[in-house]
Specification:
8 strands; 30% strand; 3 helices; homodimer; 144 residues; globular; alpha+beta; four-stranded mixed beta sheet; Ubiquitin-like (UB roll)
Chain lengths: 144, 144
């Protein structure tokens, strides 16, 4: 019997050596939109506000999804996996989830020759969403 | 322009400091079944065989999903996220994906009071799948 399971979140969650837990984000239609990372406080804020909040590993700051772009994620419900070290969040996604303007961050499929092919629906552009040219490192522009 | 994107997998994938990339596993109906981790060779084997293969972080060995339990994952297709540091695999899952016997590893929902509640469908038990009593640490029994 794992006693952790009887404790409420965020206490029962298992964070990695960097204090993070991955969160798979899925919309109400079943489309997987992205994977982000939460520390204990980001998880606490997400639960308290219903507004999905990550910890940005690159910028080392809290990242309220949609704070800059307006493309927010409203929490519908949350699940925890068997090992308590991964979260699954169903959300109402406003607009594109991806900073590249696609509905989902998983907008590229792997072809038989193993190259990548864009298959996702592009709803916007980084320029339209953030008002600045696309930055070279996508992690930098994945601000919100 | 990110030149990585023009290279085939596994070359274009970005592995973390432990040499791993997370892989979200989703069935053909849209249900998220689990999240596992692949190193370069596990990804290579998955692409080559069409049989989903992870790297077990706890046992430090390759983990062909279903090798012991028979609950295999046959790859339908694969997607890569915008940062090239996360994979999404659609699979045909034979039987339960979770070593606890549930269809999905995400078999517990978070209630309003933040405690966990089992909502998943239990298809089997660890005893039936592995022929031994449930082990204390789920990571240990998450062999296959």
């Amino acid at each position: 019997m794992n006693l952790d399971e009887t404790r409420p979140l965020p206490e029962c969650a298992k964070f990695d050596s960097n204090g993070l837990i991955p969160a798979v984000i899925q919309d109400e239609h079943g489309e997987v939109l992205m994977v982000g990372y939460m520390n204990r406080e980001a998880l606490e804020r997400t639960l308290a506000t219903g507004r999905v909040t990550f910890w940005s590993r690159s910028r080392k700051e809290f990242w309220v999804k949609g704070e800059k772009s307006g493309n927010t994620q409203e929490l519908i419900d949350m699940r925890v996996d068997c090992d308590l070290d991964c979260l699954l969040l169903r959300v109402r996604q406003s607009g594109p989830a991806c900073h590249e303007g696609y509905r989902s961050c998983f907008f590229r499929a792997v072809d038989a020759d193993r190259t990548l092919r864009v298959i996702g629906e592009r709803w916007s552009t980084p320029e339209a969403m953030y008002g600045s040219p696309k930055r070279e490192d996508p992690r930098e522009s994945q601000a919100s």
